[in-house]
Write a structure and sequence with these properties.
The chain is 39% helix and 14% strand. The protein has 18 helices and 13 strands.
Length: 430
């Protein structure tokens, strides 16, 4: 979602933009090199997404090689990881020309406008780290999207992605060294942006309220207008054949007024013919469930994350606490409404094997006890750069958490060759 909105903002200044999925390009053509593509098409500006820290090794390697082969191209990074470590990355990797720290739509639009006009004074571009005479500059102007901004952005446009038809057929895991994997039915599900922000500070989360304030400057919640959301859903259904819609936005479980408005409008517009996977941060209440049952089809699923069987662990680590008895009461109510659910439990680096087994056993119990609990999962959680327990490990009993970008990058050095290598698909480990 975020890459489309960036690409569309660049387009508003009259410049062509394109999203390239390097894995797809390499899979379709093992000879594909981004550097050749840049030189062939005279591309002036390349932005790499460094949102999730497991991307760290690949992104830095790609940026380094691109600068060597295309020395005149301007290279930018963006995303949560790049934002959090912006100063360190700029100091350690001189081939990176800039980093957009935080939300990027207006900054990337202004940056490209400057570059297109050959204006080397980038001091007015919001959220930007850049270089001037080899000195790293952090601009004072900032941008955080408001409700009005979000309603002006375009979060989906398949024409912006190179080889979207192949991207839409990727299996959950694309194994680059195996042939004929892009034979899935075209993608029929898509995430829909409902807003930005959160009020919680779960210990492991790199995107909670305090983390987001530190990384992006956001200390408030922004909501997209329900009419804009419905307009996008209609377009996705009619033009792209999307049938299932993923909502993952529950920033304030104690105040779901905006979500309730959306559900009421969806009910009137789609008459229970819309299917969703709705991920909630907190426990749904009965009022929300009543509205949900009228808004969506019976194939829809609510994702609930108790995280642990232990209420003590849940109270310590999860912002939006509820007891096991409260959880079971709601699951029973969902059974009565025939609302399907999936439950997510977590293993943390600091939880004991006994705690993990108890969570798994509880998930199994709930699945057997409630007819409409379809699945339960036990998911390992790893350290995230801006998470509370990463910033203050002693407070949460964490012995070690990576502090520097260099540590995350070392931890993600999984391959010898980057996407710019002709040997990429020959690697045994792939």
């Amino acid at each position: 979602m975020g890459l489309y909105s960036l690409a569309k903002e660049i387009e508003k200044e009259g410049n062509h933009s394109e999203i390239i999925h390097l894995g797809i390009e390499k899979y379709l053509n093992p000879e594909f090199l981004l550097s050749d593509y840049i030189n062939k098409h005279g591309i002036k500006f390349v932005a790499f997404s460094l949102h999730w820290h497991p991307q760290s090794y690949d992104v830095i390697e790609m940026a380094k090689i691109i600068k060597e082969k295309c020395p005149t191209v301007f290279i930018a990074l963006g995303g949560f990881t790049a934002s959090y470590f912006a100063q360190e990355i700029m100091e350690d990797y001189p081939f990176i020309d800039s980093i957009i720290k935080g939300e990027g739509e207006i900054p990337i639009r202004e940056l490209v406008k400057k570059l297109e006009n050959n204006d080397d004074d980038l001091s007015s571009v919001p959220n930007l780290f850049w270089r001037k005479n080899k000195k790293i500059i952090k601009n004072k102007t900032t941008f955080v999207a408001t409700d009005e901004d979000l309603n002006s952005f375009t979060f989906f446009d398949i024409k912006k992605m190179k080889n979207y038809d192949s991207y839409a057929r990727i299996p959950f895991h694309l194994e680059y060294n195996k042939k004929n994997q892009l034979n899935n039915q075209p993608m029929t599900s898509q995430g829909v942006c409902l807003g930005r922000g959160c009020t919680g500070n779960c210990t492991w989360c790199g995107g909670g309220h305090d983390a987001m304030k530190k990384v992006t400057g956001r200390d408030f919640i922004s909501y997209r207008n329900a009419d804009e959301v419905i307009k996008e859903i209609k377009m996705l259904k009619s033009e792209c054949g999307i049938e299932n819609f993923r909502f993952a936005f529950d920033p304030h479980p104690q105040n779901r007024a905006c979500l309730m408005t959306l559900l009421e409008k969806i009910e009137k517009e789609f008459e229970e013919n819309l299917t969703t996977m709705f991920t909630l941060n907190g426990l749904p209440d009965k009022k929300f469930l009543n509205a949900y049952s009228k808004a969506f089809s019976k194939n829809s699923i609510i994702s609930i994350s108790p995280e642990f069987y232990s209420e003590e662990l849940r109270k310590k680590h999860k912002s939006f606490y509820y007891s096991n008895s409260e959880l079971e009461e709601i699951l029973e109510y969902m059974d009565n409404l025939k609302i399907r659910s999936e439950l997510y439990f977590s293993t943390l680096p600091i939880t004991s094997e006994q705690d993990n087994k108890a969570s798994e056993a509880y998930g199994k119990l709930l699945q057997s006890k409630f007819e409409y609990v379809e699945k339960y999962y036990l998911i390992p959680i790893i350290y995230e750069p801006a998470a509370p327990w990463t910033i203050n490990p002693e407070k949460f009993g964490v012995d070690f958490a990576p502090k520097k970008f260099s540590e995350y990058r070392i931890n993600t050095t999984n391959v010898t060759h980057s996407f710019e290598s002709h040997q990429f698909l020959a690697m045994k480990e792939l």
